[in-house]
Amino acid sequence: MRIRDLPLPVILFNLAAMLTGGCSSNTVAAAGLFNTPTPEISPITATLPATNTGIPVPPTLTATSAITLEKTTVTISAATTQGVISGQKQPPQDGTPVPTDEEGLPVSHYVYGVLGHKQYFKLGCEAAATHDWAWFFGVSINEFEFQNKLPLSDNPEVGFVGSVNSKWGQAPPYAYGVHAAPVARLLQEYGMPATAVKGYTLTQLKQQIAADRPVIVWVIGNVVGGVPWEYTAKDGSKVVVAAYEHVVIVTGYNETHIRYLNNEKYFETPTDVFLNSWKVLGNMALIAGN
C-alpha cells in the first residue's frame, strides 16, 4: 500500500508517533503500520493524535529517603553514577504550607529521585520501566531476566505478544508488548508488591504521586493520541489494544501539567493531552502495594 492511499488521520497519527518517540529503542524507526499487514480487528473509537508539547525536565536528586508501602518501610540510599535514589518529599523552600485542592490533595507535587535509562529491547519498554520503578522502591530487577520471564501469549492481558526485537507500532496478534496484569504478577515473584489497575482516575493517580509513589501508566507513544481496537485472542477473550502502545512513569503534577519519565528523559505535558493518551487503553496503570 502506498502512503498516499492511506486515510489522512492514519498518516497524521503515524507521523505524530514517529516524531515524538516512544517504545522503540530507535525512536525514529516507528513505521510498523506502513509496512506490516494489520489483523482484522474492529475499531471501537477513533481519537485524533494530540501533540505533546512538553520539553525535557531534569530531575532533582536528594540524599536519602524512607518510602512506606502498606505497613512496610523501605529505606533507600543506593548511590548511582547519576545521583542517589530518593523518594523524599520536597517541602516549599520558604516553609509555607502546601496549598491543597477541593479534594485535599496538594495542588502540585513531584516525586524526586526516579532515575531512568534507555530501554535495550525495541519492544521492551515495560521491562525497562519496571526495572527503574522497582529500583526506586528498593527492589533490584534485571531488565533482561524480567523480559525473558514474562509469559508469551497472543493476549497482552496474559503475556507478552510477539518478539521483543520486532518493529514497534503493530497490534496483536503481531508483535506488540504486554499489559499491566502479567507485569504485576511477575513483580510479585521479585518481592515487589504491585497491583495492575484499569479505569484509574486522575484523582487516584494524584493520590499516589502525593504519597511519593510513582506510577507506571500505559499510553500511546510519547503521550500522544491513539486508536483503540478490540482484538479477539485465541482463547476467545476480547481485549482493547492500540498501535504504538507504550509505558511511562508518572512522577509529578501541578494544576495544568503532568510530569513523566520516558526512558531516560523527563517530560511535562498538559493534563488534557496526557488524559487523551492514557484513556486509549482504558486508563491502565501499575501501582505500588497490594
Describe this entry's structure for a reader.
It is built from seven helices and twelve strands. It has one domain (3-288): Cathepsin B, Chain A (Alpha-Beta Complex). Helix 3 (125-136) crosses helix 4. It has 290 residues and is α+β, with helices and mostly antiparallel strands. It has helices at 8-20, 32-35, 125-136, 143-149, 180-189, 202-210, 271-278, and strands at residues 42-43, 65-69, 72-76, 109-110, 194-197, 215-220, 228-232, 238-242, 245-253, 257-262, 265-270, 285-288. It is globular.
User: What is the percentage of strand-forming residues?
Assistant: 15-25%
DSSP strand tally: 12
Structural class: alpha+beta
User: Helix content range of the residues, please?
Assistant: 10-25%
CATH architecture: Alpha-Beta Complex
Mean pLDDT comes to 78
Number of domains: 1
Number of helices: 7
CATH class: Alpha Beta
Radius of gyration: 19 Å
User: H/E order of the elements?
Assistant: HHEEEEHHHEHEEEEEEHE
Strand count, sense and barrel status of the largest sheet are: 7 strands, antiparallel
In the CATH hierarchy, the third-tier topology is known as Cathepsin B, Chain A
Assign the CATH superfamily.
Cysteine proteinases
Q: What is the 3D form?
A: globular
Uncertain stretches: 1-15, 26-89
CA-CA gap between termini: 47 Å
